Amino acid sequence: MLRTAGRSPTSPGASRPGAGTAVGALFIATSGVWVSLSGTSPGTASVYRCALALPFLALLAIREPRSEAPQHGLSLAAGVLFSADMLLWTQAIAEVGAGLSAVIVNLQVVLVPALAWLVDREPVTRRYLLAVPVVLLGVALTSGVLDGGGTGADPALGTVHASLAALCYSGFLFLLRRSGRRGPTARSYLAMMTTAALVSLPLGALWHGIDLFPGWAAIGWLLLVAVCGQVLGWLLVAASLPHLSSQVGAILLLLTPVGALALGAAVLGERPTPLQLLGCALVLGSVVAVAGRRES
Q1: Counting beta carbons within 10 angstroms of the beta carbon of residue 133, is it exposed (0 to 12), middle (13 to 18) or buried (19 or more)?
Q2: Distance set, CA 205 to CA 47, 54, 89, 102, 192 (Å)
Q3: Greatest mean pLDDT among 87-96, 134-143, 152-161, 188-197
Q4: CB 115 within 8 A of CB 174
Q5: Which of 11-25, 97-111, 244-258 has the highest mean pLDDT?
Q6: pLDDT given for residue 145 in this prediction
Q7: Distance, CA of 235 to CA of 185 (rounded, Å)
Q8: Which residue in 28, 29, 3, 35 sits closest to 17, CA to CA?
Q9: Quick check: 188 and 66 in contact, CB under 8 A?
Q10: Measured CA distances, 221 to 36, 85, 261, 269 (Å)
Q11: Residues 6+ apart with CB under 8 A from 187
Q12: How far apart are CA 59 and CA 114, in angstroms?
């Protein structure tokens, strides 16, 4: 298994990083359903999902050993990118459709390993290169694009917004992995979410406005986003990614659209088509093929 310099093998996420990332990705998959049920604007959802997570993250950060100082520069940059990703992707859903926006933002499976190769000189394996086309086809099928999921109010502008979201998302994942290798996980992640909440306030207000009190029902749904997505999901990913290669981490995070499809069927009554089920099978098969093999 890949070990990262400067991190103890007994640190959170080190013993089973693949399982930790997979479980985290499935928690993150719930976010879209809860945001949809909240009925709030992109700015409102972005601010609340981060702000409501801060008390939980602060409690975890207080309990974390203080032998290492967090990398504030990386954490702040990651928080800005996460805020931009949330706003751009949520907007793209209405403009280009949920299906195509999901496909475009998951280009992280290509972009994150490319960043790791360019910046950290991390080698790209043959197994991963062979899996990428299958993965992209699987995500496209899972999203419903080939079943008419690429429709929206403004497809051209939505494609631009989703592409920018993919770049921000990839940058966030790259910095999340780096910050976890260089400092305490909970305190670094707390700094990221604090930054994301603060940045989302002005950006969301300029984007499509922020409702500072959207109602108790909406706040309840957004609290679920905060707990499931920001605390349980992304914190687990943050603790696990530094102990995986960028390629395996990127592949495992594709469990998010698969989980979202399953949850949409269970909670919202959505019925996946045969092509979407085939896409899920391709993604899951790729996860097993790439992430199921222990790294040396």
Answers
A1: exposed
A2: 10, 21, 16, 24, 20
A3: 188-197
A4: yes
A5: 244-258
A6: 67
A7: 8
A8: 3
A9: no
A10: 9, 20, 18, 18
A11: 61, 64, 70
A12: 35
Inter-residue long-range contacts of 201-204, CB under 8 Å, 24+ positions, other chains counted: 201/43, 201/47, 203/43, 203/46, 203/83, 203/84, 203/87, 204/41, 204/42, 204/43, 204/44, 204/46, 204/47, 204/87
- Tokens 């992640």 found at: 189
pTM metric for this prediction: 0.81
Nearest to 245 by CA among 295, 209, 197, 195: 295
What is the C-alpha to C-alpha distance for residues 109 and 151, in angstroms, rounded to an integer? 24
CA 207, CA 163: separation in Å to the nearest integer?
17
- In the chain, % of residues over pLDDT 70: 84
Provide the 10 A C-beta neighbour count for residue 119.
10
DSSP, collapsed to helix, strand or coil, labels residue 294 as: coil
* H helices present in the chain, as ranges: 17-28, 31-38, 42-51, 54-63, 72-96, 98-105, 108-120, 126-143, 155-182, 185-207, 216-224, 234-240, 246-252, 255-267, 274-291
d(C-alpha 29, C-alpha 222), whole Å: 14
